[in-house]
Amino acid sequence: MSTALPPTDQLLYTPKEAASVLRFGRSTVYELMADGVLRYVKQGRSRRIKRRDLEAFVDSLESLPN
């Protein structure tokens, strides 16, 4: 199993790749998608997450006060 991150010029990410980029578990990414927090596109049975939607999700995260 490779731990290399996907290339940054990649437009679409699988949930597994998105989990790797976000450093979340794959099931967490699926939960975020199911809850509507993380947008995705669906083609047939495949789900893909746009790079800009990953960036928007990260931008929406707020840091917790110390």
Walk me through this protein's architecture.
About 40% of the residues lie in helices and about 15% in strands. Strands 1-3-2 form a 3-stranded antiparallel sheet. The N and C termini lie far apart (about 35 Å). It is α+β, with helices and mostly antiparallel strands and about 70 residues long. The model has no long low-confidence stretch (mean pLDDT about 90). It contains 3 helices and 3 strands, in the order E-H-H-E-E-H. The chain has helices spanning about 15-20, 25-35, 50-60; strands at about 10-15, 40-45, 45-50. Helix 1 crosses helix 2. The protein has a domain at about 10-55.
Structural class: alpha+beta
Number of strands: 3
CA(first)-CA(last) distance = 36 Å
Helical run tally: 3
Q: What is the N-to-C succession of helices and strands?
A: EHHEEH
- Measured by DSSP, the beta-strand proportion falls in 15-25%
Low-confidence stretches: none
Strand order of the largest sheet: 1-3-2
What does the main sheet amount to? 3 strands, antiparallel
Given the C-alpha coordinates, what overall shape results? globular
Output mean pLDDT: 89
What level of helicity do the residues show?
A: 40-55%
Q: Any idea what the radius of gyration is?
A: 12 Å
Describe the oligomeric state of these chains in a short phrase. single chain
Structure summarized in a few sentences:
This protein is of the alpha+beta class and 66 residues long. Helices cover 41% and strands 15% of the residues. The chain has helices at 15-22, 26-34, 51-60; strands at residues 12-13, 41-43, 46-50.
